[in-house]
Amino acid sequence: MNTERQFNEEEQQQSEDPQILEKMIKPDLSKMYFWDINDSPKRIEISFPIPENFDDNLLSFNLSKHHNSISVEMPSSPPIIKGELIDVVKSMDVSKVNGRFLITLQKQNQGLWESVIVGPHSDSKDIDPQSAFILGTEVTNSQNDQKKTFEYLHTSAFLGYIPAMCVLGRFMMTHTEFFKDGALLFSLAIEYYDSPEAMVEMGDVLASMPSMSHSALTLYERALEKGHTNAHTSLGRFYSPLSSTKGSKNAKKAIYHFQEAGDNPIALHELALMYFNGVGVRKDLRKANELQLKAKEKNPHIKPLFKRKTPFSTKFLYFLLIILICIGLGYLLNIKIEKIRK
After folding, report:
1. How far apart are CA 74 and CA 319, in angstroms?
2. Cβ(201)–Cβ(182) under 8 Å?
3. I need a surface site. Which of 33, 93, 117, 167 has the fewest CB within 10 A?
4. Would you say residue 27 has pLDDT above 70?
5. How many CB atoms neighbour CB 212 within 10 A?
6. What is the C-alpha separation between 46 and 94, in angstroms, rounded?
7. CA pair distance 234, 145, nearest whole angstrom
8. 338 phi-psi bin (left φ>0, alpha ψ -120 to 50, beta other)
9. Do residues 64 and 122 make contact, with C-beta atoms less than 8 angstroms apart?
10. What's the gap between Cα 235 and its chain centre?
C-alpha cells in the first residue's frame, strides 16, 4: 500500500478518536499552555494569556501544604501549570495584567531559579504539558535518565503540547517501528490544532522521502498561507539544488524563498551557498561571505560554506565530451594535413 495514502487514511481516522482527544488540550485554550517567566532574586512571576470570553471562575490556583508544589488547572483539561517547584516559596499572589494571568511567587530563599518545575506535583504526581516538555528535552547521560525524559516528552506530546508533538513526531517518523505513531501525532497537531509549525516540521520529514515530496510541498504551502515565515526556509531547501531534500529542484524558486525568509540563519546560510557556488545566481564570494557572517551572528553553530561536488555521472559526461571534442579536432586536423600534402 502506498505509504502516503496509508498514513493519510489511518492517521486521519485515529486523530478523530474521542478517547484520544478528550485527554488533550482544547484548541481554543491552547495558548494558555504557553506560559512565560520573569525571574528575580526575591520573586518569580509566571504569566499566561487569557482567551477571549474565558470564565475566570473555571481556574483554580493552589500551593501545596508545604509550599513546594503549584497547581493551576481547570475541569476536564490538562493542568496549565502543575508540578514540584525548584524550591519552597513563602506565598503566591494572582492578578490580571494586560489580558494575562500573573502569578507572583515570593521566594523563601533568595537567588535566581534555573527552572520553575522540576518534577510531578508532590501530592497528585501530575505535571503540566510545558514543564513535561522542558524536562523531556533535557540532555541526559544515564540510560535511566533518558527513559525518564522520554516519558516526560511522551506525556507532553499526547496532552497536545505542540512543540512536544513536533519533536516526538519527528523522532518517531524517522524510525520505521514508530512511523505510524509519529504520523498520528503530526496529524493531530495539523488537523486538530491547525498548527503551521507542525505543518513545516512534518513537511521536513516527508521531504527526505522520495515518494513523499508532493505531500511535503502541500504542507509547506499550507503553513505559508497561515503566515508562518519559517515555511519559506523549508521551501527554499525543497527547491535548492544544493540541499539534500528530495523536492523538485529549481534554483530561482529556492533563491526567492530564501530571500523571503528574512533573517532566518538557515535561509541566510543556504542563500550564501547559492552565491558561493554560483547556482541560480552569478558567483559572488563577497556576497556569500556577507550572508554567511550574518547567519553566524544569529547562530554561531551554522555549518561552513562548501563547494558543490560534481556528481560522478556529470564528471563522466564532461570527460566523454572532452574526448569527443579531441577526436573531432583530430579528425579535422587530419583532413587539413591531407589537403596540404595534395
Report:
1. 72
2. no
3. 93
4. yes
5. 20
6. 10
7. 33
8. alpha
9. yes
10. 14
Alpha-carbon distances of 116 from 45, 69, 108, 339, rounded to whole Å: 10, 10, 14, 93
Phi, psi of 236 (to 5 degrees): -60, -45
Number of domains in the chain: 1
Alpha-carbon distances, residue 301 vs 239, 265, 293, 304 (angstroms): 24, 10, 12, 9
* Planar angle of CA 203, 204, 206, nearest 5 degrees: 65
Helix (H, G, I), strand (E, B) or coil at 20: helix
Considering the domain boundaries, does residue 193 fall inside one? no
Tens digits of per-residue pLDDT, 139-178? 877 777 889 999 999 999 999 999 999 999 999 999 989 9
| Residue 89: domain span | 25-117
Sheet with 36-39, side-by-side order of all strands: 36-39, 43-49, 100-107, 89-97
- Residue at 272: amino acid letter: A
> At 171, which amino acid appears?
F
User: What is the reported pTM?
Assistant: 0.82
Would you say residue 46 lies in a domain? yes
Tell whether 298 is covered by a domain: no
The 3-state secondary structure of 290-307 reads HHHHHHHHHCCCCCCCCC
Query: What does the alpha-carbon distance between residue 133 and residue 140 come to, in Å, rounded to a whole number?
Result: 14
Please name the amino acid found at residue 97: V
| Whether pLDDT at 13 is above 60 | no
Assign residue 32 the CATH number of its domain. 2.60.40.790
Contact 72, 79 (CB under 8 A): yes
Cell numbers 503551521: residue: 196
Cell of 39: 525571574
**Does 88 fall in a domain?**
yes
Q: Which residue matches cell numbers 562548501?
A: 306
* Cα dihedral 205/211/216/218 (nearest 10): -160
